[in-house]
Amino acid sequence: MKNRLEKIRLKGFKTFEDLDFEPGPLSVLIGPNGAGKSNFVSFFRMLSWAMVNEKNFATFVGQHGGASMLLHGGPETTREIEAELTLRSSQGENQYSFRLFYAARDELIYADERYRFSRYGFETRAPWNETEAGHRFPQLITLGGEGETTARVIRLMLSRIIVHQFHDTSPTSTMRRKWDVNDDRWLREHAGNIAPVLLRLYENEPKCYRRIVDTIRLILPFFSDFELEPDYDRLLLSWREIGSDRVFNASQASDGMLRTIALVTLLLLPNDQLPDVLVLDEPELGLHPFAINIVGGLIRAASTKTQLIIATQSPALVDCFDPDDIVVVEREGLKSTFSRPNLDDLQEWLEDYSLSEVWNKNIIGGRPQR
């Protein structure tokens, strides 16, 4: 059993005034531009950055324009960000809670931080463990020695909530550069190490590798196979094409081709190499409608192995899912709201229309409003 995000409460972060959300095995966020889908995704990116080292949290805040840009309505309206996450494992319920307050120099400081593990079979939950306040990074990352097993496990669980976004396919993007051949255990969020990961799969997981190649061929019929030859412990994504003896590399790939390779590789990774919670922001970007249908099928299949949260604006991708997968994101003034369609009300509409057509008709919401 993979760990699962059971519930999240988020207050004061960007467009989220006060959100309570319980994601399912697959949650597909739909809504107009600016509704808050990407803001929700960015919270998980902030969380994963913060769990790496003591400097990352401040770096994230600075790169996003300072604390005032992360607070709901700005510091004049909101002075704190609060979050509580509940994650379920095979042994019990793990919870992590923190509160950030606005400080001088446009920073965010951890006002408090709590965590606990409640084992199944007990009537009451375990008491909270509390860390010291007033730090510029989460104290959870400094714990984990003898007697701090709970902190170490929860930090590991949080680090396995991973946002993947393959939007950057510019000439200087990481996917177009050589990468350390030994960095091959996990696919990085930007897929910069995709060539080393593919090489490891070729050598150790040949069936998985063949599935990836065969699926890429469905989308890119000219594609033959990857050419994965390290050069002094560095590896560049390269491939051969049908009917040609040339070797092509990532500098020659179209944006859509790079994103296709990254998405197919990620979604077909072996179960033990997938994140516990996989977050994808607009995976349809730059893909042909036929490719979107295939990616949608891969997402559905992957959701039987790991929990997925998808943010999309693509009607073609929405049609790949069931109505109970859909989460409608809308804006009410400065506030983002989440809701699920009423399945009973939808049933009659779905007899004559596809799910995307029902969405376009604004039956379930999630369309721009005047």
Description:
This protein is 28% helix and 26% strand. Helix 4 (194-204) crosses helix 5 and helix 6 (255-267) runs parallel beside helix 7. A six-stranded antiparallel sheet has the order 2-1-4-5-6-7, covered by helices on one side. The protein has a six-stranded mixed sheet with strand order 8-14-15-3-16-17, with helices on both faces. Strands 10-12-13 form a three-stranded antiparallel sheet. It contains ten helices and 17 strands.
List keywords for this structure.
370 residues, alpha+beta, 6-stranded antiparallel beta sheet, 6-stranded mixed beta sheet, 17 strands, 26% strand
Mean pLDDT across all amino acids: 93
Instruction: State the total count of DSSP E strands.
Output: 17
Detail the poorly predicted runs.
none
Main structural class: alpha+beta
Major sheet size, sense and barrel closure = 6 strands, antiparallel
Order of helices and strands: EEEHHEEEEHEEHHEEEEHEHEHEEHH
Basic shape: globular
Number of helices: 10
**Alpha carbon gyration radius:** 22 Å
Termini separation: 45 Å
**Which percent band covers the strand fraction?**
25-35%
**Strands across the major sheet, in which order?**
2-1-4-5-6-7
The helix content is 25-40%
